[in-house]
Design brief:
The chain is mainly β. Helix content is about 5%, strand content about 35%. The longest helix is centred in the N-terminal third of the chain and has 9 residues, at about 15-25.
Length: about 400
């Protein structure tokens, strides 16, 4: 297990040998003072301060490291902030000997920053420097189109985190490394890129019940493509509720609902009748996607329009969606006589109306609903079938091919 990394800052200077070079291309103030008789600088010499980057070098990329150093003293105050006081100050880390400060994350694109740094020599005499520099503008806007689950939602233990961006992400490594998952109960998890605009997170096992989750996107200033930078950070919180896992057995024609390990409901069902692939209920680990009181089910959506043998169009009540291919657990008064004994549906899980109403009321988005006994397997991205993918394959979909332990709230 590897702890998730962050940041991709450019321009960091390494080693004492480069610090001298930094002075040449930086803003530096403070004199060395006159030498004493033994060749050592007197303690009255002012501390010198170096700032990289300086305003003289032109706009820099947002992921450039800001490095402030002092010679002949220690730093007593450092502030790097967008000009005009807009936004939070840039975060940074001060070295143990207080002679260097460096930024710890990217800055906003197309922004002018002011630097204010103060150092004191061994006698306590202060030196202060103020300077400015600018970051390059993003060549195109970049934003988040959707995050599921919604803010403040309470979800089931199988709920993945799904982020959709409004444009293609080519620099997936830096974007992924700046997505932090913070939880009240630590879990091992990983990101998986579904395509160029969509990335999902799931734990290795289902979430522990009653877990608080905070998703933090430190994306401001991260280059997502050549010359295109994200402009905003975000925080997104939700909660995991009780553990409820349902099992649909298409061989025994029964459905069991377990909550916190205890069976709380057991009723007859009728699953897909089969004969052709589309009429089998998909086998595997489904997730409750939505609760829909009324749905018009139309066989045209699966290629059987009016005039087709077996065409149907019917209003159905008390529906829990479990895939994108039209599968629901729903009320079916017309098949009550077969529920518990035979599979007669077009692929949905038919239950009695009163059981359907109970199930819809007692289900959260993200509750696992496992189907067994069918020869047709659920595809991992047919709806929220992420749990169909083995862990080793899931991790391979990460831009860094790593799982990680979530941070602790």
């Amino acid at each position: 297990m590897v702890v998730q990394g962050r940041h991709s800052l450019r321009g960091t200077l390494h080693g004492a040998g480069l610090l001298g070079m930094a002075l040449i291309a930086s803003c530096a103030v403070g004199g060395a003072g006159e030498e004493s008789g033994d060749g050592k600088a007197p303690t009255t010499a002012e501390a010198a301060i170096s700032v990289v980057p300086s305003g003289r070098v032109g706009p820099v990329t947002p992921d450039t490291t800001v490095l402030i150093s002092t010679y002949g003293g220690t730093l007593t105050a450092v502030t790097v902030r967008a000009a005009g006081g807009r936004g939070e100050a840039v975060k940074g880390v001060l070295s143990a000997d207080r002679t260097q400060w460096r930024s710890s994350r990217s800055m906003a694109p197309g922004t002018t920053y002011t630097v204010s740094a103060t150092a004191a020599n061994p006698s306590g005499k202060a030196t202060k420097v103020d300077s400015t520099f600018s970051t390059v503008k993003s060549t195109a806007p970049f934003a988040i189109k959707d995050i599921t689950p919604t803010k403040g939602e309470t979800v089931g233990v199988g709920m993945p985190i799904m982020i959709t961006f409004d444009r293609e992400v080519n620099n997936r490594v830096d974007v992924e490394r700046n997505l932090r998952v913070v939880t009240s109960k630590r879990v091992e998890g990983a990101w998986h890129w579904v395509d160029g605009t969509t990335v999902h997170f799931r734990p290795r096992e289902y979430w522990p019940s009653n877990t608080k989750v905070k998703l933090i996107g430190q994306l401001r200033g991260v280059e997502v493509d050549n010359g295109r930078y994200a402009t905003q950070d975000f925080t997104h919180e939700f909660a995991v509720g009780r553990t409820q896992v349902s099992t649909v057995n298409t061989d025994t024609h029964m459905m069991k609902v377990r909550r916190n390990g205890r069976v709380i409901r057991n009723f007859g069902i009728s699953a897909g009748r089969g004969g052709v692939t589309k009429y089998y209920t998909t086998n595997g680990k489904h997730i409750a996607m939505s609760m829909e009181p009324v749905v018009i089910m139309d066989s045209s959506t699966v290629g059987c329009g009016p005039g087709c043998p077996g065409y149907y169009r019917q209003t159905v009540y008390s529906n829990v969606r479990i895939s994108n291919s039209g599968e629901y657990v729903h009320g079916a008064p017309w098949s009550v006589g077969s529920q518990g004994s035979a599979n007669v549906s077009h692929g949905c899980v038919n239950v009695a109306p009163e059981n359907a109403r109970w199930f819809m009321r007692n289900t959260l988005r993200g509750d696992p609903i496992n189907v067994t006994g069918s020869p047709r397997e659920l595809e991992p991205f047919n709806g929220w079938g992420q749990w169909q993918m083995p862990w080793h394959r899931w991790v391979k979909g990460s831009a860094v091919s790593l799982g990680f332990d979530t941070e602790k709230l």
